[in-house]
Prior knowledge:
The complex is a heterodimer.
Chain A: E1 3-6, E2 11-14, E3 19-21, E4 23-26, E5 31-38, E6 44-50, E7 56-59, E8 62-65, E9 75-77, E10 86-94, E11 101-102, E12 106-111
Parallel strand pairs in A: 2-12
Antiparallel strand pairs in A: 1-4, 3-9, 5-6, 5-10, 7-8, 8-9, 10-11, 10-12
Chain B: E1 4-7, E2 10-13, E3 19-25, E4 31-37, E5 43-50, E6 53-57, E7 64-70, E8 73-78, E9 87-94, E10 105-106, E11 110-114
Parallel strand pairs in B: 2-11
Antiparallel strand pairs in B: 1-3, 3-8, 4-5, 4-9, 5-6, 7-8, 9-10, 9-11
Amino acid sequence: GNSVTQMEGPVTLSEEAFLTINCTYTATGYPSLFWYVQYPGEGLQLLLKATKADDKGSNKGFEATYRKETTSFHLEKGSVQVSDSAVYFCALKVGGSEKLVFGKGTKLTVNP
Amino acid sequence: DTAVSQTPKYLVTQMGNDKSIKCEQNLGHDTMYWYKQDSKKFLKIMFSYNNKELIINETVPNRFSPKSPDKAHLNLHINSLELGDSAVYFCASSLLSGGGYNEQFFGPGTRLTVL
């Protein structure tokens, strides 16, 4: 089946620290990969995506590269801000299905 | 100019009651979804409708019944509420992706608490 595994949280960092949130996947077929972000009290928003191997998705200083050989899509940011505090979800979608399969989410807290 | 809206935002009710959550989108999308997020933040799809037709139906108790009166609305009715139904329910919408990908836009969520 299709599944996503994210690093367990919570993650607590100081402002301007480097962020990595690990994500690996198992999929039948060739998935598209996503990172969604959920700010406190809000719904999910798409942060970035990649649809084929070696694609790099980027947005708001966040990046993730689709690595087919390691079935990974790790999220990185060089310098986090307090406003980045949120829950981050890695997700996949296999072509032909409308279903997004989410990881369990990683809560990030950035302290000033 | 809310894109995906849900009502109510909070719902507190007793076990055994029947309740509904409403969702509306004004994005012109043809596909809508219901997701359940449990207390550990795990998010899982429940249903999806495309142009009022059910296209995804995960293993969900039949106490849950989605209804789509038109492609801009997808309501979730829950009968005989149980303690385990307490969660945040998110509605989402998109254009039908087919073999590709179209972004799903999420509503703000409805926090259901069953006492």
